Amino acid sequence: MIRPYDPVLGETATWDPGLRSALLNLEALDEWQRAADRLLMAEGAGHLVHDLPVRADGRSASLESRPWRLDPLPVVLDPASFQWLSAAVAERMEALEAVLVDLYGERRLVTTGVVPSELLHASSRYRMSAIGMPPPRRWLTTYAVDVIRTVDGSWQVVQDLTDAPAGLGYAILDRSVIARVTGEVHTGAGVASLMRFPDLLRRALASLSDRESPRTALFSGGIDHPSYIDHSYLAVQLGVHLVEGADLVVRQRRLWIRTLDGVEPVDIVYRRLEGASIDPLEVGSMGSAGVPGLLLAVRSGGVVLANAHGSGVLEDPSLAPLWSEAAEAVTGSSLRLSSLGDSGVDHERFMASPVHDLDGLGGAAVVVRLYAVRGADGSAQVAVLPGGTGRVLAPGDDPRTPTACVAKDVWVIGRTLSPVVVAPLPQVDLASSVPTRAASSLYWMNRAAERVEILARTVRVISDRHERDPGLASLQGGIWVDRVQDLLRALRRARDARSDLPGIDALYDELSRAGDAMAFQIGSLLTEAVSVREFLSVTTGRVLERIARCRLSLQRHVAQVDDLDTLLSDLAALAGLWNESTVRGPAWSIGDMGRRLERASVLLDMVAEALWGPGDSTGDTAGRIDTADEVDRSILEALLASNESLVAYRRRYRSDVEPESAISLLVRDAGNPRSLAASLERLAADAETSGWQTGAMLAHSARDALALDLVELIPTVRATLEEFSRALSAHWFAAPVSPVVVTGSVGDSPLAEAT
Amino acid sequence: MTASDVDSVGQHTRYRVEHETVYSYEMPMVDGYTVAHLRPRSSATQIVVDSRLEIDPEPAEFDEFTDLFGNRVVQFAVHRPHTSLMVRSLSEVDLITGPDLDAGVDWEQLAHCTADLDGADALEIGMFRGSSQLVDLIAHGPQLHLLATRAFGPGIGVIDGARALCHLIHTEFTFDPAATDVSTPLGDVIAQRRGVCQDFAHLAVGCLRTLGLPARYVSGYLETDPPPGQPRLAGADMSHAWVSVWAGESGWVDFDPTNDHLPVRRHVTVGWGRDFADVSPVRGVVIGPASSQVLSVSVSVVRV
Questions:
Q1: Residue among B133, B175, B282 minimizing CB distance to A745
Q2: How many CB atoms are closer than 10 A to CB B4?
Q3: Are B129 and B217 in the same domain?
Q4: SS3 letters across A333-384
């Protein structure tokens, strides 16, 4: 799909010969590509956020982002080209600022006919509510522009991005990946560093408020937004909160963020949501992702938006051809960069860049997105990122909307400001305030992780037993298969009908359904994890990526023991990272409670199932387990092994498994970290640490119930844990359910009969 | 008895309007935010004597401002759990009877003039000349233009043309509350030839704009007569919508395609905009558990 690359006419003709031979090395490129794919996956930027099912709490995640690949070959800009581009971008950003000042202020561009009134007012991006608002300190704090190089080497504008320009996070992410995979080639090329840019952006944002240390939040559409990874990566770089609509609330004309410690004010919103979706109360607003009343708070000066509300009008394709003339009218001088207009489909006009693909090197036109920030250090000066993102065009693509999904890093040669330090981010401090929505995701993430872990271990124990002892399945008319099915069904809280396949096929059927259940739980785990990406370490990202790959092999399959072992070790790594690389704080405690709660509930379900069978918990303490019976003994062993207690049992009792001691080890022995007693103690400790009285009280009362006879113990503890779970949601996550827009009352106007 | 029987030019007629909107929710909502265009505005043909709002439950926050069109907008929020929201707007308005209207200036000349307005006219009149959110001239332009040219022949005065368009819509389209709701697109109304006042107003606005004539969507109330032999019932009236066309020297001229009225004489104006979206009477966001909701609206317009 890519034409052959011609090095004489293409981009590399301008490259330094040393760099050219270092980069155009097919062997190295193949290796870099593999390394880049791997690194991006770990960041969740590639396939990880794909095709994930419903979240644990029932919210559905519909991810539209397409998988894309990062070409290890960068776009290379020589110092002179970048200097020219940088000046042109700065000039353009300043001119567009002046156009916005007029469009929402005096509107001389309209009254003098430069911008036709009917065209402007027909645009849904022209926000009428922004006219007559107190003028913002700055319309554009951030700006991005897509440019493309023609065969004669000149640059043309494809489109301006003024509303909520996307991609800066990707630019920094791509650089960290490419710098790492190309190693010395990158270091030796004297590439300008991007490290200073997040600082500039942070200062530019802060300068929008008069407050001494303004609180800033990056307002994202959440995991459903196609640029979510861009948002979350940038939020980490900026060191600001990543928030979604549900995290924010307007009260008394101020904006507040809901955190575990109560509400905290937000002074500046770096919005990455399109103008039409930030406040569902606004006339002509789309969807309900925003915060009701946000624009009223803006109008009253209670919060500042960057970019200012209405900036997106410059992106309307029906108006875009007007801006060159408009800029000239307001600034008195013409713009250096001219616009491509609608003539972009003829790619022969564009200079080709080398693109690395499966067959080697091809040539394709590349759209380069440049990023600028205005207002750092309180000045009006524009700073242009010495880098950017490139997007490869497929034949016939409109340069505004490339379909190829191949991205490129952009290297600017000759401005080595400071060395690029590529280091994984340190552990994240959850001791500081955490949005309640994020805490809720950490909670559900841990619950799902625990559930999938025990499912995987149980399936592994059963498959392994079946492999080693195939005769067990046919013993006593197949009763083992029945019992194993019941155990797995209890574990996945099955509501489907039991398999009606004969004999051993029923077992395979059930194992395959358990695989589906694991895949589902992994999906929930990943969805929640991705939505709190900024609270998880880079290493955690890698582990999640491996778990994501494993998920695909589990669906509708009887899992292989080897695969399950891999999954179990990845899950153990995840649990280890959670315990060892996360600073303790309320959010950690809540996540940990999720894990303990799930472990305790699952254990109760399994013990009840093993002792009394489905739906029957009225039996005696010994239940139906008969140690002389081989099937019963194998179920008891499975129960111990699934809860990682079989080895402990054997070491302690040095005997065949016997119900009373086994149950005691699983239920009452606080020294066994997998026991119910240990989980309840941790629950109580977590609740106390986070200062949650009700939780501590419930956990203690569950622990007291351990003294009861099993017949009473199980229903009592189960009921207490259910209460604990409800109370936890009510106490910590009393956040709103999603907002619903209500309208109406004229539509049903009846005929007013004339006389 | 018709309006023109009793009214003479310049006469003031006072109306009392009560417009009550109630949302009932199956489950309690923890938060509710509302924006309303419910307070009538004064204009050349109407004087607002009194306007009050009653809201239950009492809102925790209340703001009022004027939008770009000069309409009065209220925005309020209820922050405690509530299972219903009632908004009642009570107003007293004097309508001033205008003169009978002549044919108006040649519509083609007018369309030509409004093509390059400058100064304040470019803003105040020009903004009503193009597409808007609910009146998409690109998608429906050809059909709208076809309809419009049947009313606006060559050499016709703009007011005569509007009168003909008004009559055309009234006779060829069927009033049918079951056919459409607030979100029915204009294309469906054109295809089905059915709709309610809001649809017919959008239709007329679209027709005029395809001719290059600026047109506004007007939201308000109409005094209705009870069916013959029956007493007037409070609350049986409804909110209404009609159209205003820019007629050059004659200024903005209102007409009501739903009822084939030009001029309009018993219409109380609340506000106007490019289309319904700019002036929807009550809209809001509630936050709470997923639950069903019931909307009930009652309006009464009484001459006092």
A1: B282
A2: 11
A3: yes
A4: CCCCCEECCCCCCCHHHECEEEEEECCEEEEEEEEEEEEEEECHHHCCCEEE
DSSP A129: G
Residues B170-218: tens digit of each pLDDT: 999 999 888 888 778 899 999 999 999 999 999 999 999 999 999 999 9
Q: How far is CA A475 from CA A479, A555, A659, in A?
A: 7, 30, 21
Q: Which residues of A touch B175 (CB under 8 A)?
A: 750-751
Predicted pLDDT of residue A42: 66
User: CA-to-CA distance for B116 and B125, rounded, in angstroms?
Assistant: 11
Q: E strands within A268-318? A: 268-271, 304-306
Residues 123-142 of B with CB under 8 A from A: 123, 126-133, 137
Helix or strand run (H / E) with residue A686 = helix A676-689
Which residues, including other chains, have CB under 8 Å from residue A85's CB and lie 6 or more apart? Answer: A77, A147, A155, A370, A384
Please state the domain count of chain B.
2
- B81 and B120 fall within a common domain: no
List B residues 158-217 in contact with A (Cβ-Cβ < 8 A).
175, 177, 180-182, 184, 196-198
Answer whether A284 sits within 8 Å of B277, measured CB to CB: yes
Residues of B (64-123) whose Cβ lies below 8 Å from A? 65, 67-68, 75, 77, 79, 116-120, 122-123
- Domain extent at residue A317: 3-412
Neighbouring CB atoms inside 10 A of A6's CB total: 12
**Is residue A458 located within the same domain as residue A575?**
yes
Q: What span, in angstroms and rounded, lies between the C-alpha atoms of A410 and A390?
A: 6
**A·B CB contacts under 8 A:** 177
pLDDT, greater one: A650 or A372: A372
**What local confidence, expressed as pLDDT, does residue A421 receive?**
37
ipTM field: 0.93
Q: How far apart are the first and last CA of chain B?
A: 16
Could you tell me the pTM of the whole model? 0.84
Whether residue A265 sits in one domain with residue A117: yes
Say how many Å lie between the first and final Cα of chain A, rounded: 70
Residue B85 is assigned to a structural domain of this protein: yes
Report the CATH number that the domain containing residue B111 is assigned in CATH. 3.10.620.30
